[in-house]
Specification:
globular, 9 helices, single chain, alpha+beta, Nucleotidyltransferase, domain 5
Amino acid sequence: MHGDLVEEVYMEQPPGFVAQGESGRVCKLKKSLYGLKQSPRAWFGRFSSVIIGFGMQRSMCDHTVFFKHTNDGCILLVVYVDDIIITGSDAAGIEALKSFLKEKFHTKDLEVLKYFLGIEVAHSRKGIFLSQRKYVLDLLDDTGMLGSKPCETPMEQGVRLVAGEGEAFDSPERYRKLVGKLNYLTITRPDIAFPVSVVSQFMQAPMRTHWEGAVGIVKYLKNAPGKGILYADHGHMRVEAFSDADWAGSLSDRRSTTGYCVFIGGNLVSWKSKKQTVVARSSAESEYRAMAHVTCEITWVHNVLKEVGVEVMKPIRLWCDNQAAIHISNNPVFHERTKHIEVDCHFVREKV
């Protein structure tokens, strides 16, 4: 994993090892070392050049994905630092790629994918099931909640967490560590995406109520630690998306929260719950901003599928439950529903 350096980099001689008669001198690095700023870039640059030498192309939508179209199908390679997944429809091409990697790097073939970066993969006749069961059990053990009573919901309905209210939590580092782990868990648990996004807003100065909210999510996870996502064959490759927003849902700054999910072939592949960056002055505006976010996501998903040679059934459907936002998307002319947005534009323009 020591990539080649393009620029000249020097380091001090390591403590406890000074070459005889060479005190005061420095070492010139030929390859990058761990801890060096250039190390990640140098390693990925070297790995990319080797993979491209095999005939793979780097995805323009996601730079950690490489693909190659062959007469027998497609080969896909996904890399995270030095952990690699290889898949595709060309079995002979996959074997050739494995042999090529063994020649260039010290690699180990772990056969069929079962575990990757904390994500457990189970294959069955129904499809592929992704979960983080071990990760959840380790989280329960770390927080001392293996013996706690499980909750039915990740967050109680009607609970509103506000910044700066109540008693300050005595260990902010512990809170940040827990929320960080919960954030990683949303990879396979869309059911906790919203409550995790809420507790993530108080990282700087968490209160006792915020900690209790995070603990509530952990107790909910104990209810079903092996819950995850099943990817099955539903007989089609339609791309569908759903968007929603809670207008002025945050009590502290009255910003709305965007929520969306994208399905490919009836399987959930992308989802997010995130507070909007500005205050929306109407429900139509907040819903329309949510539609804009999910439209960007749909475009990205479509481009990824196009690169790897998957034909997408068109038109791609975007579902929204706000009639005003739907009318705005169909009619670009300002009308009564968006008058306040136009007034704001003209008011600022006049002042400028």
